[in-house]
């Protein structure tokens, strides 16, 4: 049952920092620094973390929209970071992305139909009249109507736009979708609709998701496994139930303590983190979280904790555990 | 869409009225007496006042303006005091030549500027980008009279491949249009570059790549179409300023357009010609802007629908 669809090994993505008139490289922003995980077929992997933790970069590198600095990305046990452009073109059909901001994600000069049909034509999935029929059938499965086909994006609300973005991604019949904060830009009432749409589509088309979010409440609702990123590294990874019941890393605990509950009587201890996420160009030595950790020890300041398996499927990088 | 065009047309009426008033007043505020210019410096005072009467300059300013405006509505721009011919006939001869030069300069600027801007944006921070931006800055900064003289010196005097002045063949058009279009090319290159960079950051560009579209389609179809909207506005405004800017270029290259006509008319205090020329240039400017606005609405579906009163 648990067959791996996507696997990344020791993935790194560094962005050079250039300064001065001669734009010499004076350092690197380590957006993603040596992370490994795998996503099982038909499941959802929830990748969580603060802004700037490297979640989105991870998603883009997996889709080969950005070249990794080092490390490997496997799709169906085939390494895709070394594919030539023709092989990559074929692979693109299999992996699509849904962005956070449905306003920037749609070309204002193209009608909904054009945007969807363009991908279908690029991969020769349909032609001529079939193109429109196929586009409309995808649109309908995403809760849009046939008459939306020749409308422009600015005529739609945020939630509808996100449906268009999802329809566009699914039109190519991908098996893997990176959903990069797909509901963060939407009203709470619309968020639920879109999340349910994503779940229904997953069931219907046996999709595999990498669900990137900073909202642990949403991630709990959709994910099978959860990975927590902090400053470009994976600090904890566990099956959903295990993660929400027994979070082990102090950072995970702090994030979870910030999730609002519907039970007014539930006694909660909020763990407020001090300060901002440090500059990824100069991450702290030792454990990257030690500058904000409430349980910081001497060892944390100079020794990097390794990701260790503590229970089946549950691993954590912390000196406390 | 039709209401929009009608609205814009009606709005241009007061603009043109204002222009006619301004032109009329400025000409009369200039020092120098046209009656003396026509009669000659050594003419007798009696002859000068006779000429003044003939030209209608003895009447009050409000009467003069009324006559000017009334004639204007009939399409009569008056008679040149210098050429002794109807101003409209002179303009009909000269204006197409200026238009020819302006269109050539604008085409050159658009072709060079937009191409350079695209390559700059796509190869951002590379040597190509640096060179193109340096060249565009040079084009923007070079004074027209200097550029004209350098081009004449190099291409006409040293290499002898293009005529240094005059008109008639397509070769005569090349140096003046480079001179006139250089600054616009520089401006357009910079506009296109920044507009392209703005669009290339959008997520629909990343999505287009993720869809598996070729880079040519991503840049040419998705990015360029959106990036060219602000560039088009500048292009329209440039067209207007090039019409006016042609004065200097036409004078240097002895190009028989309205620019030179205007300079000569000012020097000879030929009021009707000055009025007519400035008016025609202004009306063209208003017309071009109107055309650009309409084109803009056509190119950007958001504007089109807002005007219709549809969902915005």
Give, in order, the helices and strands of chain A. Answer: EEEHEEHEHHHEHEHEEHHHEE
Query: Major sheet of chain B, described briefly?
Result: none
Give the end-to-end Cα distance of chain A, rounded to a whole number of Å. 30 Å
Low-pLDDT residue spans of chain B: 306-312
CATH topology of the domain at 87-299 in chain B: MetI-like fold
Distance between the termini of chain B: 15 Å
Quote the beta fraction of chain A. 25-35%
Overall average pLDDT of chain B = 86
Tell me the β content of chain B: under 5%
Mean pLDDT of chain A: 90
Count of extended strands of chain B: 0
- Residue runs with pLDDT of under 50 for 5 or more positions of chain A: none
Estimated helix fraction of chain A:
25-40%
CATH fourth-tier homologous superfamily of the domain at 87-299 in chain B:
MetI-like
Largest sheet of chain A: 8 strands, mixed
Regarding quaternary structure, how should these chains be classified? heterodimer
In one word, what is the shape of chain A? globular
What is the SS-derived class of chain A? alpha/beta
Number of helices of chain A: 10
């Amino acid at each position: 049952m648990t067959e791996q669809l996507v696997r990344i090994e020791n993935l790194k993505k560094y962005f050079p920092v250039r300064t001065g008139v001669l734009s010499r490289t004076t350092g690197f922003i380590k957006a993603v620094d040596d992370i490994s995980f795998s996503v099982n077929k038909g499941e959802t992997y929830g990748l969580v973390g603060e802004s700037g933790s490297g979640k989105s970069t991870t998603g883009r590198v997996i889709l080969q929209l950005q070249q990794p600095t080092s490390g490997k990305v496997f799709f169906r046990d085939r390494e895709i970071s070394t594919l030539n452009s023709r092989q990559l073109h074929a692979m693109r059909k299999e992996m699509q992305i849904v962005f956070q901001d449905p306003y920037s994600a749609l070309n204002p000069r193209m009608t909904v139909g054009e945007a969807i049909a363009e991908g279908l034509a690029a991969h020769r999935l349909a032609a001529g009249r079939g193109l429109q029929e196929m586009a409309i059938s995808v649109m309908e499965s995403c809760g849009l109507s046939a008459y939306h086909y020749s409308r422009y994006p600015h005529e739609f609300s945020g939630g509808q736009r996100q449906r268009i973005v999802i329809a566009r991604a699914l039109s190519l019949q991908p098996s893997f979708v990176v959903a990069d904060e797909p509901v963060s830009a939407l009203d709470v009432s619309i968020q639920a609709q879109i999340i349910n749409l994503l779940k229904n589509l997953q069931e219907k088309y046996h999709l595999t998701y990498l669900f990137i979010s900073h909202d642990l409440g949403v991630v709990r609702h959709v994910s099978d496994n959860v990975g927590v990123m902090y400053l470009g590294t994976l600090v904890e990874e566990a099956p959903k139930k295990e993660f929400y019941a027994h979070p082990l890393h102090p950072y995970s605990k702090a994030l979870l303590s910030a999730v609002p509950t519907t039970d007014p009587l539930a006694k909660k201890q909020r763990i407020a983190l001090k300060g901002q996420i440090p500059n990824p160009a100069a991450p702290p030595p030792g454990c990257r979280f030690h500058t904000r950790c409430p349980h910081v020890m001497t060892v944390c300041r100079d020794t990097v904790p390794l990701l260790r398996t503590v229970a089946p499927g549950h691993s954590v990088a912390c000196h406390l555990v | 869409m039709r209401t929009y065009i009608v609205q814009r047309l009606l709005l241009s009426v007061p603009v043109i009225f204002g222009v006619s008033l301004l032109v009329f007043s400025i000409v009369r505020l200039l020092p120098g007496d046209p009656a003396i210019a026509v009669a000659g410096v050594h003419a007798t005072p009696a002859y000068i006042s006779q000429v003044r009467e003939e030209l209608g300059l003895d009447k009050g300013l409000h009467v003069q303006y009324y006559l000017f405006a009334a004639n204007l509505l009939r399409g009569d721009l008056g008679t040149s005091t210098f050429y002794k011919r109807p101003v409209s006939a002179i303009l009909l001869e000269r204006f197409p030549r200026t238009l020819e030069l302006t269109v050539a300069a604008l085409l050159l600027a658009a072709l060079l500027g937009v191409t350079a801007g695209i390559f700059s944006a796509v190869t951002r921070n590379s040597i190509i980008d640096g060179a193109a931006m340096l060249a565009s800055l040079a084009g923007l900064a070079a004074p027209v009279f200097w550029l004209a003289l350098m081009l004449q010196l190099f291409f006409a005097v040293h290499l002898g491949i293009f005529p240094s002045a005059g008109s008639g063949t397509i070769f005569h058009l090349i140096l003046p249009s480079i001179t006139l279009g250089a600054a616009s090319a520089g401006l357009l290159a910079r506009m296109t570059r920044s507009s392209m960079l703005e669009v290339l950051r959008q997520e629909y560009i990343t999505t287009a790549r993720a869809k598996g579209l070729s880079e040519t389609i991503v840049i040419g179809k998705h990015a360029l179409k959106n990036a060219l909207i602000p560039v088009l506005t500048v292009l329209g405004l440039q067209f207007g300023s090039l019409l006016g800017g042609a004065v200097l270029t036409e004078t240097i290259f002895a190009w028989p357009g309205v620019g030179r006509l205007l300079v000569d008319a000012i020097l000879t205090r030929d009021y009707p010609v000055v009025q007519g020329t400035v008016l025609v240039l202004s009306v063209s400017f208003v017309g071009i802007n109107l055309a650009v606005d309409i084109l803009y609405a056509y190119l950007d579906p958001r504007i089109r629908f807002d005007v219709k009163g549809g969902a915005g």
